[in-house]
Each structure stands twice: as structure tokens, then as C-alpha cells.
Amino acid sequence: MARRVVAIAATTALAFTVINPPANAGPVGSGWQEYSPSWNLQIQSSGKITSYPSSTTSASGPGGSYRREGGVQTFKLFNNGSNRVEARIQDNYRTGQRQFEGELKVTAGTDDESAMQIFGNDGDGATTLMIRSFARNGGTLRGGGKDLVSNINGKWVRVNVTHNATAGGGSYSIYINGKHVHTNNGPKGDHYFKYGVYGTLKTSGAEHQWRNVHFYRK
Predict the structure, then answer these.
(1) What mean pLDDT comes out for the span 27-44?
(2) Is 164 helix (H, G, I), strand (E, B) or coil?
(3) What predicted TM-score, i.e. pTM, was given to this entire model?
(4) CA nearest 175: which of 107, 99, 83?
(5) Contact 192, 90 (CB under 8 A)
(6) How distant is the alpha carbon of residue 147 from its chain centre?
(7) Contact 89, 39 (CB under 8 A)
(8) N or C end of the chain: smaller count of CB under 10 Å?
(9) Which domains does the chain have, with CATH numbers?
(10) For position 2, what pLDDT does the model report?
(11) In angstroms, rounded to a whole number, what is the distance separating the alpha carbons of residues 19 and 107?
């Protein structure tokens, strides 16, 4: 489906205050180099995506809002006037290795909402991986067709995702609090990372918070 995007201003480099990083924070594996890709904030409302610069600390649409304070990014949906409030990383790639790292906190009551995504799939034009939060079992993260971790509501959870993109497709791996939990093959495509809150709202509200977000490549 075609999406209309309204640009508010140019993107700038990603840079957040690091808040109480866990002792084992950093990339999983060896040989990774941290870098700071540009990004912008996207809020979808009534079929239109409005794009805001990374300098934005507060923004809202008819059904969603964003706030950045003290190094914590808060993404909210509060009615069906919006189905996405996301950070879109401006680093498109078809080949090469990338790694996403960040700490996620899911607010209780959030159900079936995407928290992090590897976009790009030549087959359907959309997704290689979505990590979604569900309300069951005290809050559950699910991705790649399996439950990854439960009992997470209200807790900071460290998420690392590595992606080895190749001309034929490649593979990705997911790590929760430094522990490898899933690996799967992925499709070829024009890839980039997104994170925030995304999905048709099924409850009274949904909220994901992210902090200590980093990007690596090799």
C-alpha cells in the first residue's frame, strides 16, 4: 500500500544520553563498530505519515504521541486515530551486517504492538522481522514466529538484533539481555531499522519506552 509522507525537516544524527547501561551492554559478537545514522520520527494519522526531525522532543497526532526526556523515548498510541509512532533509521542497505541494540520497557495493557522492526522484503515490500509485545504472561515479546521472553511489563529489557543481509537473503539473530534466543533466515530487500510502537490498537492504549539505543556495523 502506498504511503504519503509529509517531511517536517531534515534528519540529524542519532545521539542520546546513556542511562544506567547494564554491565554487559554493547554489541553481541566481535568486530562490530558503532556508528550514528540519521533518523526521523514518524507519526501516522488517517493514512498519512508525518515526519519530524530527530531534534523533536515532543510531538503528537490524532491518536499517538512521542516524548523524549532524560534519554528515554516514549512512544504512545491512545486511540485508533493513529497506528504508528516510530523512529525510522535512515540507513538503507541490501547487503552487509548491521546490529541494533536498545533497552525496551513495555507498559502493562499494551497488546500485539510492534516494538522493533527490520524493514524490507522483496516478496511483499515490508518486513524481514517484527518484534512485538503481547499482554499475555505478564508481558511477552515475540519475534520470528516464537515467544522470546515473558513477564517483562514495567521492566527494562535489553534487545540486540543482528542482521547479515546478502544478495540472496541472509539471516538475523535476536538476543534478550545478552542471551541468544532465536536465529532465522531472512528475505532479500531494501532494509532499515525502525523502533517505537506500531499496530492497530486493540486496547485502551499502548506504550513502549526505549533508551540506550545504539547501532553497529561491520
Answers:
(1) 97
(2) strand
(3) 0.90
(4) 99
(5) yes
(6) 17
(7) yes
(8) N
(9) 4-15+32-217 (2.60.120.200)
(10) 36
(11) 19
